[in-house]
Amino acid sequence: MPKPPPPSRRAEAIWFDGDFVAWDEANIHVLSHVIHYGSSVFEGIRCYRTPDGPKVFRLRDHVDRLFFSARVARMDVPHTPEELTEVCLDVVARNGFEECYIRPVIFRGVGSMGLFPKDCPLHVVIAAWEWGAYLGAEGLENGIDAMVSTWRKTPPGSIPTMIKMGGAYTLSTLAKMEAARLGFSEALLLDTEGRVAEGTGENLFVVIDGKILTPPLGYSILGGITRLSVMELARDRGMTVVEQPLTREFLHLADELFLTGTAAEVTPIRSVDGIPIGAGKIGPVTKKLQSDFFDIVTGQVPDRHGWLTLAATPEAPHP
Ligand code: PPE
Predict the structure, then answer these.
(1) pLDDT tens across 153-169, in order?
(2) Where does CATH 3.30.470.10 sit in the chain?
(3) CA of 281 to the centre of ligand 1 (A)
(4) What's the pTM value of the predicted model, to 2 decimals?
(5) Does domain 137-282 have CATH number 3.20.10.10?
(6) Is 164 a catalytic residue?
(7) What fold is seen in the domain 13-129?
(8) Which ligand 1 atom is nearest residue 225's CA?
(9) What's residue 3's pLDDT?
(10) Which of 203, 259, 265, 266 to mutate to test the pocket of ligand 1 (most atoms within 8 A of CB)?
(11) Tens digits of per-residue pLDDT, 120-140?
């Protein structure tokens, strides 16, 4: 298990359209298009403390997804993926983080009023902060209590679920607030057909009879990078992973359930709507995959998949 996180620290320097600015100065105008209409695309990337220094997990895959989101949102990013990859590493190094969460966000600024973003310049920001266990250290270890949300995922042909677009997250926020109000740690959202899609900010996995099931792309989910990584780790262990649509009953057929995400990492679910899952604690398959994940990201075992990129520390700046 990972050690409990140190007290949270935010970046002193945030990269804003090409320059580093102080945290308190990274501000925008209240009439920016993004504030009114949620016109942003973003990423969440984790950097882990390893014996060789801070290493960023699947950096290029996250940057590529950011550009994919921007393309769908018709945002013409004034930087290359290579540039933004370097900036992410710079943000870690310049702030002297040993571990952190990196948040790139591209958004429409202030220009013409109204929906049509004519003359609204695009801004690119990369910030970072220290972020401990997203669903709590206790949840990571023993499992969280989840509920099925009364909110449904947007249907295909509506707000896209495969891109990380700011406005789309109003749905996740509503579901999360509902869960918190009712005393749950997380909400699981069904799609419009009633199939289980994902958590508010995580993908979902179901373990039944030793097999691992997860909804396929195209079923109202984000193509999670942690999701893909955990599928690979499971296959490395010779486990069977099947992408298939899941109805709500699968949640209760399951021997184990777990969530994956950059923020949530690999978090077990111990109950859904008050019904215990398996023994009501982290199950053996989840435990194995969670340790495989943490062993790799924290550099306890060799990075055999080439998932980590070193972000130099201030003492040893990268070239
Ligand atoms: N589904 C959704 C809807 C989602 O937002 C995330 C990431 C995932 C699945 C998992 O994807 P990946 O991180 O590539 O494995 N959610 C991000 C936002 C969390 C937040 O509160 O903000 C994250 O985990 O960074």
Answers:
(1) 999 999 999 999 999 99
(2) 13-129
(3) 23
(4) 0.95
(5) yes
(6) yes
(7) D-amino Acid Aminotransferase; Chain A, domain 1 (3.30.470)
(8) 14
(9) 46
(10) 203
(11) 999 999 999 999 999 999 999
